């Protein structure tokens, strides 16, 4: 590394400046080290004298057409880089250490020279296409390099810089442990603050509810759990929560029995018991959620660079809303989310049954997971359809049996052999309380927002409202669910494919049917969008929603966000950051009540800095950026108003209501956006698939993929999905840039394939 | 990889020329760009944008500032020691009382016992405090703990710590090896010692070490008058920095007031003396004029305390006291019955770690003994400093002076270890020997601060933060300076040191689990198990409570071993180093 990096001094030529020299140094040197390509060192080791030509002259005597030829550009709707990568093509990521595509091979020597220099100057060596294009078009721009360098430096977030720094200093193996440790530290530090209902007798808050459940589960027989003194925080979560509470209560009362004494411990508040309760959250989070995140990153981002994966992990680990609710307010949402995530990981690796069990466990931990159920159910259904008439039904039955069995297992203590048949009704009525109001407190959903004007509860009866809410919710998640099922059916394996599979069977000697069922369906990239659609529609339209349930739509959104690394100009990035900030903002009344105001400010700042998001940038470039500027300004203004003025006596809830009115449209927007994205992605999935079908050329490629980078799951199936439409449409979309990188190497075995293989190997 | 950067123009003090490692430069095949870089940097220096360069922060520096501030904000509700109330009371004293009564007020038991500059500093802060919440500066409002006062006082710590940040930036900007210095600067700014002592326990060390480092920086930039001035200012903020005064005195005398030939330079000497006297006059003058100096000094130097603090600071006396305890056990068993036993000493041991230490077996130590030993050790380093008055030698001597006082001083508090760790950090990347010393001292020193935060909730905070800091500081520095041990003794020492460091996780495990296990066994001790601060004599316990102190005692002794070893190590390195 050191040897190669010494050549980097080239960069000093171009009137470089203090700030980012070092950074550029790394990315470049890591590129060199990553490449086994013969032409590359040549480019680097050119005598300096030659390099030192002023920029203009190099360009002018270089081969013009090569430089000035337009670089193909993605269609703007596909510019968000996350969909291609979940479809399997590696995207240009700013922090990746992989070499850029070898489109300079045909170019002249000087051309590559200028390329490399530009890359150095820019420090984010191969950031967005847009940027490359700009500098290609006007090489003289390098005079303003300094200013732009600062810009692009700011474009990356703290997380990116940190990951880069770690790699540069030979600590790449420490990145994940340090990230996990740091997140644990942050979580625990949030937990130093107060919790929901601290010091507010007689009912206290969510903290007391959880503690109370530990208390009652260890002291009462199971059949009493859902019946005991329901007025005082009666248990209203599914059995898995009860079992976990029982375990926590058992350990806790072993340490100090007075924390969980029946009845007499109500409202226990002392530092030790608080520490114990916080510890239970931290441990359950560390045991369930963190591994799930890690696996997710390894699986879903399998074909991204190590740095991108680490950055994604960091982004996911520190999602502020979840941390503030779980570790500040006090809940165990991360367990349910972690189980759902684990289900996603299993789906991507093709272990559908395991994924289904995991999701059922999530449901059994917290009924909120139902928000995801339409999406997950339709993915699995879509996969059964995809598998075709032979495999499909078998798969369906297998899944149905596994799901039902695990559900029954969860409720076993409340079922006939162990309890009278009526006993099952206790948990069910507790878990699904339809006798409460339309919404609680102020929640940023459709009902609460429109209630300001329409006064639903005065106009319609409770029953009508329930029906209306259910209908709207169903209507809301339908697009996502239908998309999954329909796409699954559209790209289903034809009988021809089976024959083809038999073909392969004779070739490779493996059981094709099993292999197909054991691999993710091509509709997998749709799943996060469908999850977002369905959970958001539940949040917006369903009955009895808490403000905390925004965590559910936030999970798929953050997953989508974690895949975006080239921030600027990506739609997913803009939307994702806007919504996650607004989600946190919508939690403000709750957090304020809990006394977590300072933590709220700190976490908002920290996370935005971490991912490198600044809505108050000097010049917004797109409509979305204008929107985000307006919304963020609105949030800020509301906070300031609340700080300096107290609400008028007539409207004590003025600020929460304004909060709701500001947040709801944003949530509605992201719901619509998720539907649009699912349509786009599903079209990209199967657009040309109809005519060609999963034809044979894709299959060998498919196999190569696996052989080449050893990635499992999404990366395996997705290239097949792409390969199918490798014809005219891809090109017409301006897709060639991304495509070439993936397809050409594998087809032709050109240098870049060697390269990418090398970099893959190096990553391990 | 960083070595490319090694050529930024330095602060160009003559003393820092020992830095540029020639081998680093020779490894560069193309030195051409360096010229450009130099030119560029010179242009920067020469231009009027000096202020801009002062204010300009690179994104990574913003990152550190923002991230650390956010993390510190999260610690607002964390445990606060009595020092929090001490400082609140001082706000009240300086705000409500006239200056003539500051050092006489006894409304609260936490009387003002810092030098006048600190009192002025508190006075300054009490003005915004009054506007935020007048009850903060109410003298009779003892133990006020509303959210307003917590937020206010915690944020003053964060804000005043920016002095430290600014100075560390200056250190990094003018350094010879910028990358290394940046790591060191960042590690100092994020030092777990500051996090534990300032942001949780509550003090203003970050601010004051900022002044100390500023003074050292001035010495590096060959502006020794300013260096002396700043140190005098610092002394009037907190007199504990007197530990470092001998090194300053010798260094400034030798390298500023005397010509290299040894001739006195009268103008310089007089200017320095005037500056120092002026500072002291500004600070002490009002009290001198009011005739309150004896009262002030009696507040600053209370000579009524014992050899060890309640929790033994990890120094030589901790080892001696532990040896005494062990010998007592042996003697009690009758193995060495010829030795006489001091009865008060026996009583002293049975009371656990109580203020005044009286040895049962070993001869007792008096303040004058500790003073003589300290001076004797310091003389050795000062002679060396006199002979080699370079910047680097100065920093090492400074560290060693502080360290000697810590090792042998009377009633040393464990927080004083920061006096060692901070200047030592500046030397961390000089060579592997220095780095190793730094690593052992930092680990042992930071670990010895852990008992300051005895509440269970803060355990994870301090442990995880320190671990992260250690990884992120030691790993990059280690890769820069590593040399493998070259002969058998060094191999053995290397192995032993590693073994020693590996013992810390086990010790922490013991310290964490011990209270849980004993409270299960005893069942009757409801309160916090290991309160080091609250043990002042009244909590006399028998066997069970003696066990409570076992983790503390072990921590103290184990850290003392490492710190004594690192101290000897640095002494030998310094004496043998050629400047």
TrEMBL record, chain A:
The lineage of its organism: Eukaryota, Fungi, Dikarya, Basidiomycota, Agaricomycotina. It comes from the Eukaryota. One of its GO terms (molecular function) is dolichyl pyrophosphate Man9GlcNAc2 alpha-1,3-glucosyltransferase activity. Signal peptide: none annotated. Residues 13-35, 89-108, 748-758 have a biased composition (Low complexity). One of its GO terms (cellular component) is endoplasmic reticulum membrane. Keywords: Endoplasmic reticulum, Glycosyltransferase, Membrane, Transferase, Transmembrane, Transmembrane helix. This is Alpha-1,3-glucosyltransferase. It is an enzyme of class 2 (transferase). It is found in: Endoplasmic reticulum membrane. Residues 1-116, 688-723, 744-764 are annotated as: Disordered. Its EC number is 2.4.1.-. Pathway: Protein modification; protein glycosylation. It is a multi-pass membrane protein. Belongs to the ALG6/ALG8 glucosyltransferase family. Its main location: endoplasmic reticulum. The chain crosses the membrane at residues 243-263, 275-297, 369-389, 395-415, 465-486, 623-645, 657-675.
Automatic annotation (TrEMBL), chain B:
It is found in: Endoplasmic reticulum membrane. Residues 32-45 have a biased composition (Basic and acidic residues). Its main location: endoplasmic reticulum. One of its GO terms (biological process) is protein N-linked glycosylation. Keywords: Endoplasmic reticulum, Glycosyltransferase, Membrane, Transferase, Transmembrane, Transmembrane helix. Residues 9-19 have a biased composition (Low complexity). The chain crosses the membrane at residues 202-220, 240-257, 269-289, 393-412, 433-454, 460-478, 549-568. Pathway: Protein modification; protein glycosylation. One of its GO terms (cellular component) is endoplasmic reticulum membrane. Residues 1-45 are annotated as: Disordered. The keyword Amino-acid biosynthesis does not apply. Its EC number is 2.4.1.-. It is a multi-pass membrane protein. It holds the Pfam family Alg6_Alg8. InterPro entries: Glyco_trans_ALG6/ALG8 (IPR004856). One of its GO terms (molecular function) is dolichyl pyrophosphate Glc1Man9GlcNAc2 alpha-1,3-glucosyltransferase activity. It catalyses: an alpha-D-Glc-(1->3)-alpha-D-Man-(1->2)-alpha-D-Man-(1->2)-alpha-D-Man-(1->3)-[alpha-D-Man-(1->2)-alpha-D-Man-(1->3)-[alpha-D-Man-(1->2)-alpha-D-Man-(1->6)]-alpha-D-Man-(1->6)]-beta-D-Man-(1->4)-beta-D-GlcNAc-(1->4)-alpha-D-GlcNAc-diphospho-di-trans,poly-cis-dolichol + a di-trans,poly-cis-dolichyl beta-D-glucosyl phosphate = an alpha-D-Glc-(1->3)-alpha-D-Glc-(1->3)-alpha-D-Man-(1->2)-alpha-D-Man-(1->2)-alpha-D-Man-(1->3)-[alpha-D-Man-(1->2)-alpha-D-Man-(1->3)-[alpha-D-Man-(1->2)-alpha-D-Man-(1->6)]-alpha-D-Man-(1->6)]-beta-D-Man-(1->4)-beta-D-GlcNAc-(1->4)-alpha-D-GlcNAc-diphospho-di-trans,poly-cis-dolichol + a di-trans,poly-cis-dolichyl phosphate + H(+). Signal peptide: none annotated. Belongs to the ALG6/ALG8 glucosyltransferase family. This is Alpha-1,3-glucosyltransferase. It comes from Daedalea quercina L-15889.
